[in-house]
Amino acid sequence: MLESHSFRRRRAAFPAPRVDELLIADMVEPHSRVLDVGCGDGTLLNLLSTERGVDARGIELSHKGVNDCVAKGLSVIQGDADTDLENYPDDAFDYVILSQTLQATRHPRQVLEHMLRIGRHAIVSFPNFGHWRIRAQIAFLGHMPVTPNLQAPWYDTPNIHFCTISDFLDLAKALDARIERGVALGRFGTPLKANAPWVWNLFGEQGMFRLTRK
Amino acid sequence: MTLAETTKAASQREADEPHSLVVRFGPDQPLAMDAGVSLAPLTIAYQTYGTLNEDKSNAILVCHALTGDQHVASDHPITGKPGWWWIMVGPGRPIDTNRYFVISSNVVGGCMGTTGPASLNPATGRAWGLDLPIVTIRDMVKAQAMLIDHLGIKTLFCVAGGSMGGMQVLQWAASFPGRVFAAMPIATAAKHSSQNIAFHEVGRQSIMADPNWLAGRYLDQGTFPNKGLAVARMAAHITYLSDEALQSKFGRKLQGRSAPTFSFDADFQVENYLRHQGASFVDRFDANSYLYVTRACDYFDLAADYGGSLAMAFKGTKTRFCVVSFQSDWLYTTADSRAIVHALNAGGASVSFVDIETDRGHDAFLLNEPEFIATTRGFLDAAARARGLPPLAGETDKQPAEAAKPASEQTDN
Prior knowledge:
The complex is a heterodimer. In chain A, about 30% of the residues lie in helices and about 20% in strands. Chain A contains eight helices and seven strands, in the order H-E-H-E-H-E-H-E-H-E-H-H-E-H-E. Chain A has helices spanning about 20-25, 45-50, 65-70, 80-85, 110-120, 130-140, 165-175, 195-205, and strands at about 35, 55-60, 75-80, 95-100, 120-125, 175-185, 205-214. Chain A has a seven-stranded mixed β-sheet with strand order 3-2-1-4-5-7-6, sandwiched between helices. In chain A, helix 1 (about 20-25) crosses helix 2 (about 45-50). By secondary structure, chain B is an alpha/beta fold. In chain B, the strands form four sheets. An eight-stranded mixed β-sheet of chain B has the order 1-4-8-5-11-12-13-14, sandwiched between helices. In chain B, helix 2 (about 135-150) packs across helix 3 (about 165-175) and helix 4 (about 195-210) runs antiparallel to helix 5 (about 225-240). Classes of the chains: A alpha/beta, B alpha/beta. At the A-B interface, helix 1, helix 3 and strand 3 of A face strand 13, helix 10, strand 14 and helix 11 of B.
């Protein structure tokens, strides 16, 4: 009757954090309260809670991601950035993070508004559609871009709201948000040395920004 | 006496002389019930598993569902079957009795030793029957709190339970926020829906329509509304399963015959299965008790006690929650659980929410669902770390640290 083998403890393992996740962690004060929207397998949440003593919570759309996270002891709910953020009260968190997810939301503007409302700071990272290689693919090949970071063809991608770094900065302005920190990541996730937004927009594969309400 | 009659007699004895630990509260410690009356004396029958640690910080209260009982992980004294949550509770199980002290008590209104309609009313010398005041989920929880006080436990490490047990978990967290470190409401809802009430009413009417029910005084006459209770169980049992599960288990298969008999015999396997479920249920459960526990669920509406806002029920709570639903559960749906999660988020609570993919319906919470079991283990392990409970020998809390990889390996679209 006892199926003890199926109850054997499996070691909770997390993949190593990516460079962009380490950079996000650097933008977060230790021992703060963080909500990671679209937390995937929980790598960033785990990094924040173990390395920085953060009270880290997550929202994740995929059932598998959620189950993995909770089984590893993380505080994660199955939910949707587009519909679940409205349930959180104002200033519930110090930081609300949206890592590589903005472009997959149905209503990016509302999502960002909620993030700025729920958190004292919002941290957003996203693939930059203004990168020269993406521009070149459209300009010279006449096709929707497919890159190592964005591998799905147009008909099969969950990414329905691509933007450039310049577009994102415009949205932040429209929402009256202040950019506290900004960085663009190059080919291997390393931050670009230049600090000018037009350089970011042309050479950054990803943009990463920390914003706050003015 | 036939075997069934012997079982029945054993079952009725269990109401007053249970095979369980018992605590009796006298007239000096009445239970103030929602119905506006005080219940005394009050008996609570309970089981414990594992050992309470020195600072009494490792106690888990498991709340049972509608027709469950305190025999969570020990054989049922009447049916001889393993405890109803043996898969979750025991040595090495997610609710690990090597590590935690597990308590489970029979609810007020039940029939396994805690005061209920089948228990002797000392004022009359007869079974309480319908003289017992209507019981609510909050009454059940208040009685459990009396037991926990009696055991000298201030804060429960965790309160966990499914279905009606999950309602008690929610009530515990709302009524005694400082006494619940972690909470696992499973396959449950913060209020009974119209459809939930409707199904329960079918069950109650079925019992009351049985001529042997005798307006609830059947025990005085040595009779029992077996047919009514069995039909109530059959109807309820359908709601515990899913359409897919019934279809894959039985389909339209015939029972021990190759062609329909053109009669009202149980031609179909599913009919035979339900009849068996009904017949075996009446051996172990009291019909009046069924009226009381179903009514308790119907009256449950946690938000109503907090000005209509479920979030207010959990405002500022420090309890860590893990809400679990099952995708094919149409009795207490994923949407019901999501409503709880939204309220907990709005109340600022620490909450995890897992929706388990399964076709086994509501009953999935009693079965071997690996993802559910892993979830429970992970949630409790993390809560135990936060509570400062020492890990079991041979285990460490450290996650393996690995070097960072470049971002180019990601595939995010």
